[in-house]
Structures are given as structure tokens and as C-alpha cells.
Known about the structure:
Elements: H1 2-16, H2 22-45, H3 50-61, H4 64-105, H5 123-151, H6 157-189, H7 191-194, H8 198-225
Helix pairs in contact: 1-2, 1-3, 1-4, 2-3, 4-5, 4-6, 4-8, 5-6, 6-8
Amino acid sequence: xxxxxxxxxxxxxxxxxxxxxRKVKTDLLTEARDSLEDAxxxxxxxxxxxxxxxxxxxxxxxxxxxxxxDYQGELxxxxxxxxxxxxxxxxxxxxxxxxxxxLIWLGGWENAPGGNPPPQWYMPFAQISDSMTWAVSIATxxxxxxxxxxxxxxxxxxxxxxxxxGVAMVAASAALSANVALGVASMFVNPALMFHTPxxxxxxxxxxxxxxxxxxxxxxxxxxxx
Length: 226
């Protein structure tokens, strides 16, 4: 019981201090437990009693607050990188899905319901939405590359995590804002445009939901990196 109590209490305390992705967190906690068990076994072989062996192992491992800070840096970097990869691959795929639905079910903008092309001021919204997708994709790709190179030169994972989370938050928010702005402009110019076909409406709703999910992930990345 003593063995389970000392090591389990330490790991449970460490667990409570670490917000982050489940898989990486589980791996880190398993690694910590294995290290503690190995150290305690060495002390038992040296003649220490069970409780003392575990206590010595925990003392050697380090204060839980210090270990939690180091582990949190790793968790934050892993989640930030995961968020950037999600933006990099999911955002262009969602955009191409929407564009495909528009081209198939609507065609060119001159084919808008009502027979009138959108006014001149409307087209910049569409162009910004299109350009934002690729600008965000390029930014996230560069952020991933820089973070990988940076990690080889510094041991400060938390700084890398903050930068990755910041890029993810700006990128996801910008993409979501551009998409919502285009939708609002479309409703203002021609409400029938959004409801021209069920497929186009579903593609639009799906795109907003995906972008909202990416923004939520980016917010979590920021929170984990604090």
C-alpha cells in the first residue's frame, strides 16, 4: 500500500497540474511513473524500506511544481503543433469543398439568383476570403517549420508553445472572420444566394463549423501555453 500511496499521490498531483492533450499527457505521466518505480526499486535493493524507497525516489525526481512546469511546456508545444497542422490541412480542404460546391451548384458569380451580378463592393469580400485561406496556410506552414528549427536551438518549450499558440489563434480567427464577413455580405446583397441550393447552404454551414472548431483549438493552445 505504501508503494502505491507515495508514487500514486505524486503522479496524481502531477496529473492535476497538467492541462493538455490526452495522449501526450498520458505518455508523460506513464514515463514519470516508470521512472519513479525504477528509482524506488533501486533503493529497495539498496536496503531501504518500501516507504522510504518511494520517498527517496520522489525526492530525487524533483518537486512536482518544477516537473509540472517542464511537462506543461512539452504538452503546450505538442498541442500547439497539432493545432497548426489542423489549420494547415483542414482549412484548405474545407475551402476547396465550398468552392467546389459553389462551382457545381451555382457557377460563376454572374449566375447568382435573381439574374444580377453582385455589386462591385461585394467582390473584395470573396477575394479576401479566398486569399485568407492560402495566406493562413502559408503562415501556419512557416510557423511549424520555424518551431521545429527553433526547438533544436533552445530548451524553452514554453516560449515556443506561446509563439505557436499565438500564430494559431491569429490564423484561425482571421479565417473565421473572413468567412463570416463573406456570409454576412452575401445575405445583405442577395439572401437567396445562401439558400440557392441545400448543398451550397450545407457547405457554408460546414465551413463555419470547421473554422469555429479550429478557433476553439487555438484558444486551448493559448491556454495551455500560459
